[in-house]
Amino acid sequence: MIGSVERKVAIVLLLISILYLVLSFQIPTFPYSIVDADALPKGLGFLLAALSILLFIQNPTEDRKKSDLKKDEVLMLLAVAGLIFVYILLFELLGFVVVTILFLLFTSRMLGYTKWKTLSAVSIGFTLVLYFSFNYLLQIYLPQGILPF
Amino acid sequence: MDTISNMLYGFQVVLTFQNILFVFIGVLAGTLIGMLPGLGPISAIAIMIPLSYGMDPASALILMAGVYYGAVFGGSTSSILLNAPGISGTVATSFDGYPLAKQGYAGKALAIAAISSFAGGTVSVVALMLVAPLMASFAVSFGPTEYFALMLLGLTAIASLSEGSTVKALISATIGLIIATIGVDQQTGTQRFTFGNPNLLEGIDFLIIALGLFALAEVCSLILSRKSKMMNGNTNVGSLKITKKEAKEISGPIARHSVLGFILGVLPGAGATIASFMSYITEKKISKDPSSFGKGNLKGLAAPETSNNAATSGAFVPLLTLGIPGSGTTAVLLGALLVVGVQPGPLMLTDHPDVFWGVIASMYLGNLFLLVLNLPLIPFIARILYIPKALLISLVIIFCMIGVYGVSFSTFDLYLLLAFGIIGFIMRLLNFPAAPLILAFILGGMMEQSFRQALTISNGNYMTFLDSKVTIVLLILSLLSLTLPVIKSKFSKKPTEEEKEHLAS
Fold it and tell me: Given B25, B62, B342, B475, which residue has the most CB atoms within 10 angstroms?
């Protein structure tokens, strides 16, 4: 039994630092540079390793609202993350306007907003205002996708 | 006389239609975003950054600075009305502000908060105007060792001053530095940790980290609290009037804490949050009637409100004159400046006087705008608290997406943003502070550069770090700052318990 969450985190961090150190030692070096590109990464790797060991030893106990996170809330967070993932996936394919309107409708509905009229008005209005102000005022071109404008 | 002519020049920069508009947009957006519980100034700035693409540097910084002090100004409204601080810098405001609102004096509390904020902001802009040029002329002689030591001090200070475990804060900072090593090495051109992915050659953009670790992670917290409404029906804030006697009562704390707040803001690692707590505690200590604090004492409201706004301007001193941010928020501001092609530092006064004096002059104007926005218009502005959270959450997510896509035009960065959002949320759950990470990430590249420059100049001799007195002092200070938490934990039992009591009530 490893014990507290802090200790588990410390172990994960130690593993990360070891992985990082392994990678740092693979950085190609030049014979004539005084401080080469691998110096800082190596130092940081050892520093992180040392700090994670310190965290393991210190094992700070902090009152945290652990029980706050219920199962369905975690599911909700994962669902939103999933929707964001799908959004990114379709972003350049379908274009900003289409995906954004769909994203706003779906996400807000899923989070419990039920007034469809307001929701569709806000989604469409907000998306179009953003799209046109970015493309024409700021000249930052968002993906056009399947729409002709 | 010199300062006056410089200031006039600054006003010349600001008083164009375009820049006045940017000041206004900045402070308005800052107030609105700052008011929303959960979204802090870092998110506010990061969300607004896309607007500044392609702007000239002076306008961009004027806008971003406006968002920053606007957010600190606006955060107080939700502290007072909802007891749900909009940003961490206004937590102390809720101690006496919310009791006042409960007693039916919400309007009075808002008015005092606005006046104190305005006074704190304005006094410290004057101080900024006087101190910054002196600091810059001192810093011109700084070499790479001084810069390295200064940045190190910034990191150790923010780590030791952040809430909770110092080891965790140091780990955050180290991870920030590690993320900064991704990409092509600036000195040798070696690829580091790119895994052959061309998207990683230039490293990870700071905006991805700022929006991910702050805005998206804050969205997660909003999702968890989505069922609780932000505002329950009552917009009636009551009279905004303050009597002469009350004005007299708060004038003392305002004078004291605009100075204290400014000084704390200049110091690395401190900032609006620490300044407001310090001011609240000092004001309570010197008060004749300390027991009335926490029950709606006007001084207890004026002190932190003055101080957090004063600290905001104070934080611009190291940012503008040394080019080194002392806090997470100013780190993001620095990132925004670098995007538009300005490297702040001692030479900025001569190279970009329009940016330097322009932003200082804009703060006078911005504070005036804020006073107008937050006094007569507050009942209208507070309506933003009626936006249903479900809608707000999805809108903020879209803003983050556009912000990142607008820098890189690649969906790879959007996936990274999502990843950092998840990391940021996990960090929050595990009580790892995110501010040291973003500061370290922004300082990382510069620190490595000055470290290697110093050693290249000295031909690999590490003793070069002990050559200059300034460097030695700074290195000793960084070491001392690491011992601070140990000392703090021995002496600070009392105030933390008091704070908890306040937070609980």
Answer: B62
Amino acid B503: pLDDT: 46
Beta bridge partners, B191, equal: B184
What pLDDT is attached to residue A52? 92
Write phi, then psi, for A62 (nearest 5 degrees).
-125, 140
Would you say residue B87 lies in a domain?
A: yes
Q: How confident is the model at residue B203 (pLDDT cuts 50, 70, 90)?
A: confident
Please give the tally of structural domains in chain B: 1
What is the mean predicted confidence (pLDDT) over B76-94? Answer: 84
Q: Token pair for residue B348?
A: 């900025």
> In the predicted model, what is the mean pLDDT of chain B?
86
Q: In the prediction, which pLDDT does A4 show?
A: 78
Q: How many CB atoms lie within 10 A of CB B166?
A: 25
Structure tokens at B216: 């998206």
Note down the domain range covering B486: 2-230+245-504
Please name the residues in contact with B53: beta carbons below 8 A apart, sequence gap of 6 or more. A138, A140, B339, B340, B406, B407
pLDDT digits (tens, 9 = 90+) for A105-149: 999 989 888 888 889 998 999 999 989 888 887 778 888 877 776
Which residues have a Cβ under 8 Å from the Cβ of A42 and sit 6 or more positions away? A21, A24, A25
Nearest by CB to residue A85, choosing from B168, B395, B418, is B418
- B204 within some domain: yes
Rounded CA-CA distance B501/B267 in Å is 28
Whether residue A61 is predicted with pLDDT greater than 70 in this model: the reply is: no
Measured between alpha carbons, how far is A106 from A90 in angstroms, rounded to an integer? 14
Contact A51 B170 (CB under 8 A): yes
**Counting one residue from A and one from B, how many pairs have CB atoms under 8 Å apart?**
157
Domain borders along chain A are: 5-64, 68-137
CA–CA min distance B133, chain A (Å): 34
Is B235 contained in some domain?
no
Per the CB < 8 A criterion, the answer to whether B161 and B484 are in contact is: yes
Residue B273 parent element (H or E): helix B272-286
**CA dist., res. B366 & res. B372, Å (int):** 10
Cβ–Cβ < 8 Å for B325, B297: no
Please judge whether B393 and A108 are an interchain contact, meaning their C-beta atoms are less than 8 angstroms apart. yes
Considering only CB atoms, B459 lies closest to which of A20, A34, A76, namely A34
Tell me whether residues B165 and A27 touch, CB distance under 8 A.
no
Element (H, E) at B191: strand B191-192
Residue A4, both tokens: 């507290």
Taking CA–CA distances from A96, the nearest residue in chain B reads B402
| ipTM of this predicted structure | 0.91
pLDDT of residue A81: 93
Nearest in space to B402 (alpha carbons), one of B91, B49, B152, B118: B49
